Amino acid sequence: xxxxxxxxxxxxxxxxSHRKFTGEEVSAEDVKMILRAALMSxxxxxxxxxxxxxxxxxxxxEKLSDAKDMGGQLIKGAALAVxxxxxxxxxxxxxxxxxxxxxxMQYQAEELGLGSCWVQMRGRGLSDGTSADTxxxxxxxxxxxxxxxxxxxxxxxxxxxxxxxxDRLKWENVHVDKF
Length: 179
What we know:
Layout: H1 8-14, H2 28-39, E1 51-55, H3 58-65, E2 80-86, H4 94-111, E3 115-120, H5 132-140, E4 147-155
Antiparallel strand pairs: 1-2, 2-4, 3-4
Helix pairs in contact: 2-4
């Protein structure tokens, strides 16, 4: 479903994680816009040291969905995935920089009428002790110095989600001046 361009307040309220997708492909122009959002995201010291791998091959999406024991199966139903990578030895803020890029892509996807879901990979793996990094590096020929923060599953959503409810915001978790 394509939505009209919305202001940021509405965009933040509308963006929800989608775990079910239709089989429809994402246009090349939409993929470019999503990646543009990542490439424009702010980084520590302007390093722009993140790396992104776009995966739309169904076999590779299925393999990525098995990179960790739980929570990754939704990847195989997505039209594409964006693997967010960083080099911990090059950039001590790789997690923060990758996180900002990832959420920027998610907001852009939402604005385009697409669904997305962050699939955590950092610190995750298989019950046999194999890290998700090792699995993902093997699938996508990623150099060993790069670590995977997350995989964003992106596609045309098949599961309707209600917007965030204003009355459920936890304003009690916000403190001014002192805790």
